[in-house]
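Subject: design request, 229 residues
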């Protein structure tokens, strides 16, 4: 991929910001154009960068920061600059935070202990317009729809209804949906099923259309609801 990708890092820990900056700038075609310690500083910085036509393509956004936290900042970012893609970056894997970040408009959610290779891969995948949740996070999101924090158990989709909703999917599409629901990236799906990356994308587009969902995350949740996992 030859596309140049501009990145902003938003985290209240200066040492972590600098560490991520060094890791990112070791990667070809990735450039850190700004860093900020909280949401308000990040918004102000992007205002200036936008005026110079240097706005980031991707923002790595910490969740818990003083002042404006990552969830609120993500919400404001998506209102002002919907084309900028937000990746929530945190040490926390609490399901409520994960859901709040995704509902605010984040396109990715990864934990801070990922490797440099995973970080670079996440940035590139999200820059292509895909939603990416690393496996640990994907499991939390999917589980949250099968176990509710209230005393009442979540209503399950009847088996007959689930089968009916899945019936438009081909066998290959069901295989891809099952892998997606387990947090697999397009490349991992491609390697697992020995099919081309473009073929995976075409299948995913058909899956979203047939299930009537907007993105990969909703498709994964639907798979869980329908008992595909």
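Subject: RE: design request

Done. Sequence follows.
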């Amino acid at each position: 991929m030859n596309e140049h990708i501009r990145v902003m890092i938003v985290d209240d820990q200066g040492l972590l910001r600098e560490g991520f900056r060094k890791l990112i700038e070791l990667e070809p075609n990735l450039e850190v154009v700004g860093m900020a310690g909280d949401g308000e500083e990040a918004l102000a910085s992007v205002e200036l960068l936008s005026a110079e036509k240097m706005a980031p393509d991707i923002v790595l956004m910490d969740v818990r920061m003083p002042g404006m936290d990552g969830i609120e900042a993500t919400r404001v970012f998506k209102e002002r600059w919907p084309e900028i893609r937000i990746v929530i970056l945190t040490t926390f894997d609490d399901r409520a935070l994960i859901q709040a970040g995704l509902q605010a408009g984040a396109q990715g959610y990864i934990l801070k202990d990922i490797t440099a290779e995973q970080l670079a891969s996440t940035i590139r995948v999200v820059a292509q317009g895909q939603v990416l949740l690393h496996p640990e996070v994907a499991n939390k999101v999917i589980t949250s729809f099968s176990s509710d924090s209230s005393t009442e158990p979540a209503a399950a989709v009847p088996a007959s209804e689930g089968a009916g909703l899945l019936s438009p999917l081909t066998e290959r599409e069901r295989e891809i949906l099952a892998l997606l629901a387990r947090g697999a990236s397009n490349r991992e799906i491609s390697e697992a099923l020995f099919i081309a990356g473009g073929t995976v994308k075409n299948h995913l587009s058909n899956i979203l259309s047939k299930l009537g969902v907007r993105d990969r995350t909703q498709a994964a949740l639907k798979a869980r609801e329908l008992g595909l996992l």
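The longest strand covers residues 30-36.
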